[in-house]
Please model this.
Amino acid sequence: MIETPERYNDRAADGAVYPADNLTRYRFHTGAELRQIGNAEACPVLFRDLGPVAMARFLRGELQRLAGPLTPIIYMRTEEYAEPYTDYEGIGRLVILRPLELHPWHSGVPHVFVARATREVSASTLAFVPGRMTLKQTATRLTEIANAADWREALGGRHFDAECRETVNRLEALATELAETERWLQPLRLALQSSQSARRDQALETMGRFGLGEDDLCAAWHHLPRERRELMRDALQEIASDRAAESDCHAVRASQIPPVQRRNR
Model:
């Protein structure tokens, strides 16, 4: 729901009035001057972007922390923020229904707000926004909704529950696919980060033969189109097979060298 700090403070418990935190010191993290929300300034509907694993945890009721594992602040955004990527899996987002519970500040970056990583909100004020919905649609419907139960009913009750279960299944399948692919990606990443230029060049040459680029290795898996992911998986399996075959050949040749020669080598 949309409310001002003044309205929020009228209902806040002692010691919980806004702003409870001073976030000016986090300029080093946002790269811009932070400022608190004005007393009569409406705090907009805020969304939190999560990765597939964290979103699946939330939908299973297992998410323990809104911030990333190492960051000192929680990043949130309004519906006006345009992400520099496409989410091809439609994993959805979290909406904080009473964002002033987190005591957010303007980050200094347009449409982005931050709060202390240790801040928590009650489970009843966190809700899932399905990937099929635009954030503008969502923000319009949420102006007066203050709890997750009302949001669930607004999206169809049992139909919304089914959509959440389908999303969890899809995200778990995506996580399995990524874990399998990582076994093939990791050797290439290590080669590209090697201090040996010959090893880096060989990795780039191998990737080039299969039409792979560094962006393929660095992008979040769900930010790649499914067709691209399938092409990558086929290429990576072939690269892994070639490496295994080359390793077997080296082992066979080494076994054919007489013991004395092997010691001299």
User: Anything to note?
Assistant: Residues 248-252 have pLDDT under 50 and may be disordered. The chain has two domains: 5-155, 180-264. Residues 5-155 form one domain. Residues 68 and 84 are 19 Å apart (CA to CA).
